[in-house]
Amino acid sequence: MGIGCAFLLFRLPLFLSWNESVTMWTTLMKLDLTSVCLALFLGLIFMVLFEILRINSNRDQIPPGPRPLPFIGILPHLAKKPMEFIRTVSQYGEISTLYIGRKPTIVLNTIQVTKEALVQEAFSGRPSMPLIEWITNGLGIIMVTFGHSWRQQRRFALHTLRNFGLGKKSVEDRVIEESRYLIAEMLKAEGKPMNPQHAIQNAVSNIICSIVFGDRFDYDNKRFSYLLKILNENFMLVGSPVGQIFNLAPFIKHFPGPHQKVMRNATELLGFIQDEVKEHKETLDPDSPRDFIDAYLLEIEKQKSNKDSTFHEENMVMSTADLFLAGTDTTSTTIRWGLIFLIQNPDVQERCHEEIVRVLGYDRLPSMDDRDKLPYTYATVHEIQRCANIVPLGVIHETIRPTKLQGYDIPQGTMIMSNLDAILSNKKHWKHPKAFNPENFLDENGNFCKPESFIAFSLGPRVCLGETLARTELFLYITSLLQRIHFSWPPEPQSIDMDGIMGIVRYPQTYNVVCRSRDTKDYCDAYLLEMEKQKSNEDSTFNEENMTMSTLDLFLAGTDTTANTIRWGLIFLIQNPDVQEQCHKEIVRVLGYDRLPSMDDRDKLPYTYATVHEIQRCANIVPLGVTHETTQPVKLRGYDIPKGTMVMTNLAAIFSDKKHWKHPDAFNPGNFLDENGNFCKPESFIAFSLGPRVCLGETLARTELFLYITSLLQRIQFSWPPEPQSIDMDTIMGVFHFPQSFNIVCCSRDTKE
Predict the structure, then answer these.
(1) For the domain 130-517, what is the CATH code?
(2) What residues pair up with 107 in beta bridges, in sequence order?
(3) Quick check: pTM over 0.70?
């Protein structure tokens, strides 16, 4: 009885006439509630078993992949921890299968198979996605299925964008000009925590707005700020579980829920564009089109007599929306990820800044012609794109006809994804696949070099329409920001989940940064400007007396500590002539005698770099650290520490702890080398302290120590004079641990011996 009812409930309505169906349902309604529930339960079991049988029957015909759940496939994994799941997909081979709902999707996991597939027209479709269809009615450019309309709209968009400056100096000039506004906006909160999202998004959006609408929008324009806000909401919602559930069960559009917010936001965005279209119609000059909308209106008029034309007002609105949305979100999201990577890697940020200022100074903003002169900065921009990886599975494709790939028969209508997460971190193609390191885009001579695995803008007929604009914006905005602003984290700790948040693209979490202007001649200039700026602030501590003492602090700290470390270094090097000779040979082998070292040479001079660190460890110029004091009562290892307690760090003990150093009581650069002879810094090396009071001049000190010591060892041999000297290695304690006065003999090595 139960199985029969189940079959009637779930299968027969497909085959019966309307009258027969009504009669059947009338009969079923007369059954008691228990029978109906049992029928439903058994029917559900039957459907699940049927679905499992369907999936298993296809397994031999498709590439391997994770086992899907009936009806919903792998969607729970994507909803819970998407990036963790995506990282496991490549384990199934070059090609794998994911079930998105009930439908198998082919995932391309290597650059070779991705190139093989995406350059073919057969892989150039877009799947019909119910949520996108609901919003766009199948119109526009980006998510339109492959066919006549897509060809017409894409060709027209490319032609028109080029006419209005894409890839030309005119758009480049707009980006350069907008970068001035962006720098000024970010420095409005100089020295204070600020969320960079709106400023970056507004700056990026203004470029596509100037091409599409013929105008830019000020950063304090409330209506435009609101549009950017709801744009963000929609990008998040469409790619979230809300969007996935809608695509599985599109009938829910008739019911209330968060998906209705997607439609409301989309209606507001489209309304904004329709208002722009109306205004353009009223002011259109056929002889002088101002922007994309003007050009489209003229094309509609031109194509009036063409029956095959897809140019009409609805398509114009959706195509404009596609350009506006795509030209705003992807680039701004990449730059936001870039700020995180640059703050997490201050050495990269400083090296970029130094290169930019060396080439451009502070007065001239960058242009695209400067890329070859700024190889490290250009490499950093590409490395930001690689690590940001904002579309980890690429923009989805669909086969437009049956085809073959790697021996598999791929039916028409199969969804295709490119596993950019695997491609952009493949050990075979990247020198540093798991780390943020611009060296991934530099050759052995320090010149920019783009690996073939870098396909951030996709390939083939569906290659990103705005690639040229995105490349221009990324290079000019990031370079301008690094030229003029120093970025750091605010004092309050922030927890940044580097997996980000999955929407249509992979977003970073909301975060704050501290921006400080670099556009001054020196510290005193900057301080005087800050005093002027803070005049009306009653809580300001910026005054002439504080400026004098702060300047004195920097002068003293920036002179004595590094100088004394180098003096100790000469003692250790003369006492260990084998170390001195090994350093010299390594330096000459890499640099010769003619070229002085740079900070770029550290990785090529591991023994010398280790020696510099070993000098710091053994010199240990502040044996008990710089004294701290507790600012409030605190507990430490079970002890109650009152407020106002002085705290010292026993660096003498830490730097000679047998548990952490291979040669704790000897001068031996091996303490900073791994078993392969590569530089390796133990966690116990805290010469510059830790936490909020970490040494302010750490970067300068590291630079001076490496470059001075390496330059001296390259050109000079150091030894004791014939007269004996007694060197007390415990020496003199002042503010620092000073060596005694001593004499040395210097002999030039600056010959080709």
Answers:
(1) 1.10.630.10
(2) 96, 417
(3) no
